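Risk register update: the risk that structure generation would not scale has been downgraded. Supporting records follow, first protein first.
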Amino acid sequence: MIEFKNFLLNAQAKVVNNTTSLPWPRTQDLETLYEINHVMFMTSREVYENQKNRIGNNPFLYVMNKVKSYDIDWEDDFKIAEMIYEKHYRL
């Protein structure tokens, strides 16, 4: 999981994750949401079969460093991951 504290807008440009009384609170005052980074899911076979998902009813959210758990879905993501590797991990 990656912690997410930023504004989310719907198709009508309405902020959907502001739980404060302010129209535009500071982002650090927004409720923390968690983005699934698809790095790892550990669960029993029964959860997959009986609940038809990989998280279950009582998941343990393990917050990871965004750089070290960068998700690659598209070619641009791969290019960014290569730059991260070159900058931080290349010997």
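Supporting record for the second protein:
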Amino acid sequence: MSVREGPVEVITRGERRRIWTPEQKRNIVMESLQPGGSPIAVARRHGIGSGLLYTWRRQMVEGQLKARLAVPPSFVPVAALPDGGGTVPEAPMPQAASSAVFPDDTAARIEIMLPDGVTVRVGAAVDQAALRRVLAALGRR
């Protein structure tokens, strides 16, 4: 006499693989490189394994990950003039700060006059954090 077993369920569908764009990978990698951050926490937040994150980091360093990288930071020419004006000699723009970042249009400049008479002129695309540091340093003089 044989005993009939119950039906067997076969699950053929697995979890769908996610496709990440190069920009998404770059953003996740850059987030994992933030000072004081944890790569493991970044990986968990985005639902990926830490091994995959470290693979993307290695690929970015080796140039295999074809993601558009941000313009590297560079110094921006800044002039401080006493009240009364004067002319500022034109300093050549650094190589990293190309015309793609700072247009040649002179109207795209910011001029800040401080209470002590010092004038600071920068390009309109200046990094806010860098400008704050410059203004704070000038305010302490």
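Residues 93-104 have pLDDT under 50 and may be disordered. On this basis the risk owner (M.S.) recommends closing the item.
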